[in-house]
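Here we describe the complex-level prediction in full. Unlike the single-chain runs in Section 2.1, the two entities below were treated as one system.
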Amino acid sequence: MDRLIKRPRLSLALVVVTSLLSACGGSDSASNDTQQPLPVPPAVIPTPPPEDTPLYPKMTGAQASRLLHQATMGPTGKEIEVAAQTSANAWLTHQFTLPPTLHSPALRISPGKEQANYSNRIDAWWQVSLHAPDQLRQRVAFALSQIFVVSDTGNNLRGKPEAMVTYYDTLLRHSFGNYRELLEAATLSPAMGTYLSHLGNEKANVELNIRPDENYAREVMQLFTIGLEQLHLDGTAKTDDEGRTIATYDQVAIEGFARVFTGWTFAEAENWKWPTKHYLAPMQAWPEYHSELEKILLNSERIAAGTGPEQSLKIALDNLFNHPNVGPFIGKQLIQRLTTSNPSPAYVERVASVFNDNGQGVRGDLKATVYAILMDQEARDLTYAPSHFGKLKEPLLQTVQFWRELSAYSQSGFFYTWDLASSHGQAPLGSPSVFNFYRPDYQPQTLADTELVAPEAQIANSVTSIGLMNYHYASLLWRIDSLKEGDTGNQILIDLSQHQQHLAQHGPQGLIDYYNRLFFSDQMSLSMMQELLAVFEWAENKQPEYQIAYCLFLIAIAPEYVTQR
Amino acid sequence: MDRRRFLSMCIKGGVSAAALTSTQLQAMQNLLNQQNYTDYKAMVCIFLLGGNDSMNMLIPLSGDEKADYLASRQNLAIESPLPLSPVSQLPDTGLNPALAALQSLFEQGDFAFIAGVGTLRAPTSLSDYQNKRSHIPAHLFSHNDQQGRWMHGQEKQSLNTGWGARMLELLEAAPGFASNISLAGTNPWQRGHSTSAFAMSRSGQAKIHPLTGTSTRAQQFDAAISRMLRQQAHPLANSYSQGLSKGIAQSQAMNASLEGLAPLPGFSDMPLSQQLHTIAKVIASQSQQGGGRQIFYATMGGFDTHDEQVTKHPELLSTLATSMSEFHRAMDSLGVSQQVTSFTMSDFGRTLSSNGDGTDHGWAGNQMVMGGAVKGGDIYGQLLPQRLGSEFDVKGGRLIPQVSTDQYSATLAKWFGLSDGQLLDLFPSLSAFNDLYLPMMRS
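The structure predicted for the assembly as a whole is:
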């Protein structure tokens, strides 16, 4: 079979994907009976404008690799090469200009099926994460999906893939917008309303002992905005005279906010009790089901009795948004998702200050906040960063990087991945609860003698770490396309031809140097290098594909790869 | 079960007894590494994630109690409760029919309820709560904080360890990894000062592909991986490295000990049943090795019933009851039910009042204890009136616990072999209560 028919090839940077090639991406799906969106075509690597000034010097290759590990879903060698032609500032600025690649258009129904299912929405996540040019936005949205948690694990949203991709799109659209707007959009998302049960929530009925549902009121405060304890700007907890932390809210505020989140249901519902489930548009209010009582908010702010649902929502979200905790609370978690598990208080303070004021008097500017996180000297300058700087790479992002670099594809065009919870300990929008896959303050027992946390270690137990090791092994050794024959259907294959060429031209050391840049940002240890060189000796009788795959597998499980520094 | 029966069970599963003699028996013996015991005991925690509406497990059948119940629970009130005949003189109380699978265990004396349990630092009155006295537990009604308080057995410390792991560390200086097993990943209960849980999947299998087989490749990977997972300079890299390295070695040892062990009969394919099945297999293997102590952690999710409680909650309880009774039968047929005690924990109870179609986060709740060592057929603690506005109601039917989680846990820890002094070490706030433990265990 002609390889070009199997999928679009992307062997060179900046290849313009022709209409012929991009059409091929979906044309060999087993069935053409149903109209389906095409898979997202492999990205044309966007070229940021060149910049090399004293303030914003051109990055070295190693610097570009570090930045892209922090700011993409997992960089490819070509992307790093392109980024190294310019400055960190220009690369980020350019990424901010790219339009969002949304997930809804990538939601495809499996051949022979009537409607999309769970594995189709996961397929959409892979397609976009692997191929979208707006990599920074995808990474930030993925981070936000772990703060504004909605999950279809163990609940009715499992059967609503459209609701889930629409929610993800909401996060993508607001990733570089204002936090206040993101907060409102997430609050009014029907997926969120279903997940945290404020959709269909009614005002009290005293005779029946019914009071408003408190679920969203509680979690929007505890997890999406202010957290449990009052914070300094640098993210450390404030304490009272006796050294105890100070709570941010009490049950009175819970009940006040619970009243705010009454009277909302699906858009265009004809009937309050049995609404048509419209997951694609924000929820709408029914004033007669909204609590008309007074609502007590944070800092004793009150919404007067008789205020309607939209106005109450606006006042209540403003009340949360303007709480001084939001900057450090959200800023620190975004830092943890992007650059380091243990930011210095000063780093958090610098980021929170930008959240509080982007320099033009605007609070909650996420673009400015993300820029501050990634351009901070602690994130950019290894000599400035503490020795524990960095984070464990999320298992999903490890697989994304390998599949991006190795142009993963399947003959059917679908990326079906089963039971990511077992193999990766996480799945996009698949947290076991609203508390995400891990707590921001999780400290594994191995760090007990330190002040350090490692949130991602919470999902690295003996089952998941061996599960992930097996997954890397299978996807790198058992899915090499040039060693496959016949119909491979839904198998996700990798293409090692570029690496083979590199090996043929530059030898083992040359390939390892390339890997050092790509996977380790030039920080590979000598012993790791020797380990990889040794592969070419003990596997000298093996095909080059296997020699390469063995190296890639060892890299995938190496402590120095798994730790993003 | 004696050794011969155990071996015969293995043979029925298609494994010859000879296969068990060498490496496997040795592997089994080294898993616990405990010298201090002549007997074997295991504790199985079933955590009901999300906050079980456990007040709705025990239903008042008559009198004012019933009228109060119907008034507070409204459309969430349970119809047709099953009769219970507890040993103690108690108000007429029935069982939620979704728990029918447990009724006979209760009646035959292998199962008990503990009523009115919740997080407390000291006995607490309504006025204490209203006046925000300092001994009110931190972050009431918050899922992860309350789960943590149950499992830590103490207020938040700089180092958050759980009472399960601390208990093992009190009993034995360096307990083997298989003394501390989780079927649901990382959790606060099993994280200690020097130990942490060994995680198993619910299938119990942990094949390690790259190291499987006898090829040069497998041998080279084995050697390369052990070199790569040495001490790392970066603390997070080191943490990962140690975790994976231990995970591989321990999984290999556990694989060897379970290899060829036939599935035990009587387990259905629900996730909790599968977790308990794997626990049962480990118990079948380890209880043959002489003395030792093991703690196990299993979970069931979905109990955060803010909506659709009328349909969801009975399904949850029914699944739970089925899985628990399957496990009890397995322990019985292995002949170890006296040595294995299972018990529930859950974030909190829920509000008696409704939010329309569900309930919100509450405080006190009821818990369940099962096993041959339990003085079953009874309800311990205090059955709280399901009345809004009672002296126990802080508001909306969030009830003040009359038994602390630590008293409940200490009772189990005492059965496991801890002295009163060790209990006070393990649960610092126990000293605020008159009784260190409840009379629910036979010894």
